[in-house]
Amino acid sequence: MPSVLQLTLFLLASGVAGVLIFRYFGLPPILGYLAAGVLIGPHALGLASDSETVKYLAEFGVVFLMFSIGLEFNIHKLRSMRKIVFGLGASQVILTIVLTIPIGLMIAWIYPMSWQAALALGGALSMSSTAIVTKILSDRMELETEQGRNVVGILLFQDLAVVFLLILIPSLAQSGKDLITDISIALVKISLALALIFYIGQNVMSRWFKFVAGYRSQELFMLNLLLIVLGMSALTEHFGLSMALGAFLAGMLISETPYRHEVEDDIKPFRDVLLGLFFITIGMLLDPLVIYEQWILVLLLFVLPLVFKFGLIAILARGFGSSSGISIRTGLCLAQAGEFGFVLLNQIDGLHMIDPAFSQAVLAAMLLSMLIAPFLIQYSDQIALRFASNEWLLQSLALTKVATKSVRNKDHVIICGFGRSGQALAKMLDQENISYLALDLDPDRIADAVAGGSHVVYGDATRENVLVAGGLSRAKALVISFADTQASLKILRLVEGLKPGMTALVRTRDDADLEKLQSAGATEVIPELIEGSLMLASHVLLMMGVPMRKVVRRITDAREERYGLLRGYFRGAEDDEVSANQSWHLHSVPLQEGAQALGKRLSELSLDEDGVNIQAVRRKSTESDYTKLDLAEDPVLQQGDIVVLSGSPESIDLAEARLL
Questions:
Q1: In terms of C-beta density within 10 A (0-12 exposed, 13-18 middle, 19 or more buried), how is residue 570 classed?
Q2: Would the keyword Acetylation turn up in this protein's UniProt record (predicted)?
């Protein structure tokens, strides 16, 4: 019998393998965790057992997920999306549960099931996968589209409904006779909790976090955060509620403080790792023999809920004013089961509300629906065009609006994205009487901007027909104002195909993807961090008395050299890990006795083959001073010289090995 540590290490190793394989095929990591769990579980290879210790550890994954969901539930976000969240979202959850009850009673002829169990199963069925759907829509840049807003609104209500269901289901298992009383008690508990949140969140938590943050200790901040999350979880568990509810309440408490975003970044590693462990344990629950022995039942439980849920959501979305195409896309995005469905099913199973054999079939069907979800979302556009008779017409009308706005424009600028950077550019163009057309996907922003006199239309700049309708053939320049490398590359490839040589300017966060974007056809890439450094340097030089003409020359030279002089930096502990690994580094290599490079010229070392640039060679002139050698003279390296390299972390490692 392996120890807890050995079992946990094995689960983590399995998770890494599963995620690597699924990420290789462009699929969400959650599917990798589930597949790994199924494979190593006691019902398959039998390499790991779902012990109580591992289950308890995995439960913390749900705790931190609910905490993250709680962080999103601030009052301002709910107010801005109230129609979708409390209209469309509430209708979906309530109708799914209500319509599932008679279906469950019909199933009871074969598998014993009470109406309380059917209601609980309806709650599990009403859930969709927040992790899968939001990740895919984010990658497709569709979160701000109409179907994206519908999807996010429904998911928000589903997450809120989980809190209610986690309280209700245990009470149904105990008695179930006084449903009105159970619901009333659950609502009272939630209402008291929410009232407490908005009182404490605005009056106590902000002051406490300000007090803790005042010590400027990351360790203290993290300890305080974990104490609040786990403390609230323990408190709700003590009063007979779920740990997940306590974490959700803690998240809502902190969402009312100014430290929400910092907390979200700090808690993410705990949440992702432990949630992955939770999904592995869910996969371990599945007995693959059930799919083989009860394949008809599993197939029915897979197909019928998928079709039922898709149809219900599509009809509701249509009833709330969405077009047929948008309604079909919304239904396809949310037809699958969700991670909270597993949480509720696990709770139902633990309370012995349904037959274990039927529970296994439901679990298998839910896993299959999640596996197929990425493909449903990927082909949602084609399916909508196939079955929505007016979808072609609506898309044509949308393109007509774009074309109507751009038809009189010539030598204009197309701005992709109308966020803060895009709007600032538009104002400058207006002042110079240069015409422009901005494309954006946020309907609220577009409505406000159009009312304010801006030339912006709804359109996805990553689609070829939208760029054509925007007058790309007549435009003088195209500007990508958002810092998203993948979307920028897609737009640049389209532009290169439609109008080769088109002047295209791209905004990016730093210099990590400079060459990639330039190779794709970007005329200029503007790394905002380096540009900010240039502006800072120019102000300092002017304040130190350097003539304006010389400062302008310095800035111009830096830009003409494609920021070559400024590229790379000496990395510190506070630098962002992801950005640091993608950006160019500066690294100093002292040449000590025995180094291979001693006595050789720089040209002999061929360091450029490793993809690095030699920024400088410094040689000791006195006991404490160094002089900078002229690289054009190709100096012979001596002991004590310091070679300053710039390049990617990998290329610097290779060059350093060649030097030493």
A1: exposed
A2: no
Show the DSSP H helices in 435-547 as ranges. Answer: 443-451, 464-469, 485-498, 514-519, 528-543
Identify whether the C-beta of residue 638 lies closer than 8 Å to the C-beta of residue 593: no
Q: What is the CB neighbour count within 10 angstroms for residue 546?
A: 13
Produce one character per residue of 301-323: b if its CB has 16 or more CB atoms within 10 Å, e if not.
Answer: bbeebbebbbebbbebbbebebb
Question: Which residue has better confidence, 176 or 454?
Answer: 454
> Angle at CA 257, nearest 5°, toward 252 and 263?
75
Region 485-511 average pLDDT: 85
- Residue closest to 649 by CA, chosen among 568, 590, 581: 581
β-bridge mates for residue 439, sequence order? 416, 457
pLDDT tens track for 91-143: 999 999 999 989 888 888 888 888 888 899 999 999 998 777 876 776 676 76
Pairwise CA distance, residues 74 & 250, whole Å: 12
Q: What is the full DSSP assignment across 135-204?
A: HHHHHTT-TTSHHHHHHHHHHHHHHHHHHHHHHHHHHHHHT-S-HHHHHHHHHHHHHHHHHHHHHHIIII
pLDDT, tens digit, 9 for 90 and up, residues 32-77: 888 888 888 777 777 776 566 666 666 777 777 778 777 766 666 6
SS3 442: coil
In this predicted structure, the answer to whether residue 298 has a pLDDT above a threshold of 60 is yes
Helix (H) or strand (E) holding 69: helix 52-72
For residue 317, CA distances in Å to 116, 330, 333, 590 come to 28, 7, 12, 65
User: Residue 156 class from Cβ within 10 Å (0-12 exposed, 13-18 middle, 19+ buried)?
Assistant: buried
Query: Residues near 72 by Cβ (< 8 Å), separated by ≥ 6?
Result: 156, 159, 251, 255
Domain 53-387: which topology?
A: Na+/H+ antiporter like fold (1.20.1530)
Q: Rounded distance, CA 5 to CA 198, Å?
A: 40
Q: What is the mean pLDDT of residues 177-205?
A: 67
Report which residue type is found at 54: V
Note the pLDDT of residue 186.
64
Q: Which residue has the tokens 């310091």?
A: 642
Alpha-carbon gap, residue 374 to 388, rounded angstroms: 21
For 277, which DSSP code? H
SS3 state of residue 243:
helix
Tell me which amino acid residue 382 is: Q
Q: For the segment 376-411, what is each residue's pLDDT rounded down to a tens digit?
A: 888 887 787 777 655 555 555 555 666 666 667 788
CATH T-level topology, domain 394-522:
Rossmann fold (3.40.50)
Fold of the CATH domain 577-659: Alpha-Beta Plaits (3.30.70)
Does the pTM surpass 0.70? The reply is no
User: What is the rounded CA–CA span in Å between residue 157 and residue 150?
Assistant: 11
Three-state SS annotation for 332-359: HHHCCCCHHHHHHHHHHHHCCCCCHHHH
Alpha helix segments (H runs only) across 73-139: 75-80, 82-83, 90-107, 115-125, 130-139
Query: What does the mean pLDDT of the chain come to?
Result: 79
Q: Where are the domains of the chain?
A: 53-387, 394-522, 577-659
Locus of tokens 């949602």: 380
> CB 601: neighbour CB atoms within 10 A?
12
Tokens of 280: 């592995």
CB atoms within 10 A of CB 573: 4
